[in-house]
Amino acid sequence: MIIKKCRFTVHILFCLLLIHFLSSTINSKIMNEDGKTQKESVGSQNGNNEWSQYRGPKRDGVVISNTSIKAWPKGSQPFQVWKKSIGEGFSGIVIIGEQLITALAEEDNEFLVSYEKATGKEIWRIALGKLFVEEMGNGPRSTPTIDGDFAYILNSYGGLSCVNIISGKQIWNVSLTDEFKIKRPQRGFSTCPIIMGETLIIHGGGENSAFIGLNKKTGKTLWQVGESTAGHSSPFTAVINNVEQSIFTIARIIEKDGQRQMLDEAVSVSADGKILWRGPSLPQIIAMPVFVPPNKVFISSSVENGCLLIQVLPDGTIETVWHNKEMRNHFNSSVFYKDHIYGFSSSTLKCLVAETAERKWSTRGFGKGSLIIADEKLLVLSDRGKLAMIEATPKGYNLLAQAQVIEGKSWTSPTFENGKIYLRNQKEMACYDLTK
């Protein structure tokens, strides 16, 4: 009897060990939707310095280069790695692992498209919806946001999609116009989604849907709050006074003295949908607000209202530090770097002291261009495709190199990683190595 009990116990232990072994084996080979194991997951390659969202790793237009970049000889071109024709659109290029991802339009549709970073060869594409046609330029406006193995992209008509970046397959889709009754902006939806933890946050519009939080894995609505019109600007996330928050610039209609008026505001929203503070903003904001650490926000209008710097106090009250007309960002944002603000005031490139708005220098010749900062240099793309390298210093304008690199209307700001700059416009995309 005792022997039988021992055999039974040994048998049970063997079964438990076998179950544990099989469970471990299966878990180590869990497959993503694309059929690859977690070890092959692109998301596992994510680095803090990857250009995985609008305006770079921290949405500030500044990136740390692992290799030094240098000016190319006068009268020559930077080293071209590749160049190719692409469809229309103003969507920026994002980088994840060995992929470049952007949105574009061809024939009658908008697409999210993945390319090999090294060669520009197309990997996959997925349709996002019908082509948006508009006098300023056709195609998608929003830049994808990458989180793990997923891209989040908003098409011109308000279709928000989650796409697996390995397989190119859609995971979920939500229509902002159908689900939340948001009216499409005149020039199309262009705001870029932002991720806070497990929540995707996007600027919507309408009643009780100015800010919308979705479960990033399922697209399910977690919360919606605030009232505003649908706008073009995108938010940034920062820790201000020890609180992580996303900062938006919006416009909403209020009743004042018996009349309906437009109120322009900067608004802070937490990951769980709480409005933390409201402050002054300016009319007709297109460019993204800029974080000025540790607790200030720079805002620039696209019209004659100019710019302002606000400060967030520990109790949540907002003070205006200054307001003037020194900077008027049209559609591309300024960059804060080493206590200074660099940006395009309409067609004039300027350097301002952040604390006082004192102008240190200005120059023209790039139209309504765009800029980023890498390796202590301004990398400027003119609105007609001229690339310039300029010293990022308040001491004076110092042009290091310039060359015509892409042709036509070029309103999309550059993307940069490890010495290489990636550019696109309405018809071309190119990669240049600035280390050679």
Verbal overview:
- It is built from two helices and 33 strands.
- Helices cover 7% and strands 43% of the residues.
- Residues 1-47 have low confidence and may be disordered.
- The longest helix is centred in the N-terminal third of the chain and has 26 residues, at 2-27.
- By secondary structure, it is mostly beta strands.
- It has a domain at 57-88 and 335-436: Beta Barrel (Lipocalin).
- Strand 21 (307-312) and strand 22 (318-324) form a beta hairpin.
CATH architecture of the domain at 57-88 and 335-436: Beta Barrel
Widest sheet, order of strands: 1-27-28-29-30
Arithmetic mean pLDDT: 90
Give the helix proportion (percent range): under 10%
Q: What's the main sheet like?
A: 5 strands, mixed
Separation of termini?
82 Å
What is the top-level CATH class of the domain at 57-88 and 335-436?
A: Mainly Beta
Poorly predicted runs? 1-47
Principal-axes geometry comes out as globular
Number of strands: 33
- Rg, Å, rounded: 24 Å
The chain-level structural class is: mainly beta
The CATH topology of the domain at 57-88 and 335-436 corresponds to Lipocalin
Total of DSSP H or I helical runs spanning 4+ residues: 2
Strand content: 35-45%
Quick overview:
The chain is mainly β. Helices cover 7% and strands 43% of the residues.
Keywords:
about 5% helix; single chain; 2 helices; four-stranded antiparallel sheet; about 425 residues; five-stranded mixed sheet; globular; mainly beta; about 45% strand; Lipocalin
Per-chain topology:
Layout: H1 2-27, E1 62-63, E2 79-85, E3 94-96, E4 99-106, E5 109-116, E6 122-130, E7 145-147, E8 150-154, E9 159-164, E10 170-175, H2 176-179, E11 194-196, E12 199-203, E13 211-215, E14 221-225, E15 236-240, E16 243-256, E17 259-269, E18 275-280, E19 290-292, E20 296-300, E21 307-312, E22 318-324, E23 335-337, E24 340-345, E25 348-353, E26 359-363, E27 370-374, E28 377-381, E29 386-391, E30 399-404, E31 415-417, E32 420-424, E33 428-433
